[in-house]
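Please produce the structure of this protein holding 3-methyl-2-oxobutanoic acid.
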Amino acid sequence: MNVLDFCKRKRARQNISMVTCYDFWSAQVLNETDIDCLLVGDSLAMVMHGFKSTVHATVDLMALHTRAVRRGAPDKFVVADMPFLCVRKGMAPAMEAVGQLMQAGSNAVKIEGEAGQLDIMAHVVESGVPVMGHLGLTPQFVEAFGGHKVQGRSEGQASNILESAKRLEDAGCFALVLECVPAALGKLISEQLGIPTIGIGAGAGTDGQVLVLQDMLGMNPSFKPRFLRHYASGHQVLTEAVNGFHEDTTSGIFPSREESYA
Ligand code: KIV
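Below is the modeled complex.
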């Protein structure tokens, strides 16, 4: 998959799959799967570091995780998130951050929002860096939204998101993540754009889907928002494995003679 394939896939009506990936070992696993694209999402601040929101991700942290993912998944198209306020500090710091993430091994950057930052996004595109947009529930705006809430329910909000989506396409974005918007709005935006939309909680009418890897693996069984499907019982598998090791160790049946050096 390269950046040109995203639009080709939309034209061919073949949905695009993307999952988050934050570290070397899961990147190695994902490199062997059919998944189209990996996202080093700033959600790593929450999933990997236990923060309450993504505003704690920094450029250095994103670059560190991006380097690990690239080492583990040399064959995949990797998108790295531009973290909180990165594009709001002016052109020079924004470009510095883009440089760090691209040199860390990403193929593209993802930037949340549109209003007040279109010129910087267009400049990144013109500099030869593919940009993925992100609208709807943009988690970096969580404080302004008053929580992680579905966006675009009112007619006014929906039309603002649609207009922003069109401007992002005009600015040169190659794809657009739509997060937590009503399914009808996800479908409408997808129909109106030439670039593919990749939805999370945006219904079945988008041109692809993205999920956080740990969420789809069921690592936290009590985290089950409406849009999430668990593809494994990861928490249970891990717990049983570790308890099995503990039991074998404490009862003295691990290691066996075959697992020991002569
Ligand atoms: O950071 C992230 O994981 C994301 C996805 C939810 C799209 O931006």
